[in-house]
Specification:
148 residues, alpha/beta, Uridine Diphospho-n-acetylenolpyruvylglucosamine Reductase, domain 3, 3-stranded parallel beta sheet, two-stranded antiparallel sheet, 19% strand, binds flavin-adenine dinucleotide
Length: 148
């Protein structure tokens, strides 16, 4: 089963029900860091592509959906005169995938740019996490490793 939710509230309901029914599920961003077995996944796949609304720029803070492509975000921010994640111009991931993987390059990593993450825990609770940039590491996003 492949789900492409567009509304956080509805995704929260779906996650709660999957959790209660003990149905396994995993999240999918742009799929650029995944290898999928030929026989396909044995769990429900929840894609973030529906959360791709245009970034909302408020001064030097930007609110952007998990499904928005990271390279496109870099272009939008440069156009708006903002800097900080130019290293991601060539990383073919979604914003959600890049936060989860702490994607980066020599010049920096996503963890340094994340101020707050609105996410939905695996059991369906809508949460807001303010991660400590110091705790991000290679492919690690503490506090976010189990959610979306
Ligand atoms: C050509 C190429 C170049 C690359 N260059 C770089 C590079 O320079 N630096 C670098 O760090 N990486 C690089 N990568 C790897 C990859 O692009 C990054 O890891 C990127 O962050 C993955 O994002 P994604 O959206 O494709 O995630 P996916 O591959 O879809 O998922 C990766 C992991 O994140 C989880 N995930 C994804 N979205 C969410 C979400 N919304 N909520 C919760 N969990 C989620 C998935 O479950 C999975 O565990 C490269 C890959 C390719 C193919």
């Amino acid at each position: 089963m492949f789900l492409t939710p567009r509304e956080p509230d509805r995704l929260a309901v779906v996650l709660r029900r999957l959790h209660e029914a003990e149905v396994p599920f995993e999240f999918l961003g742009a799929g650029s860091n995944l290898l999928v077995a030929d026989e396909g996944p044995s769990f429900v796949v929840i894609a973030s592509e529906g959360f791709d609304e245009e970034p909302n720029i408020l001064g030097d803070r930007v609110r952007v959906g998990a499904g928005y492509p990271a390279p496109k975000l870099v272009k939008r921010l440069v156009k708006a005169g903002l800097s900080g994640i130019e290293f991601a111009e060539g990383i073919p991931g979604s914003v959600g995938g890049c936060v989860r993987m702490n994607a980066g390059w020599h010049e920096g990593a996503f963890g340094n740019a994340v101020a707050e993450v609105a996410c939905i825990a695996r059991h369906g609770a809508i949460e807001s996490i303010v991660p400590d940039p110091e705790t991000f590491a290679y492919r690690k996003s503490p506090g976010l490793d189990g959610g979306s």
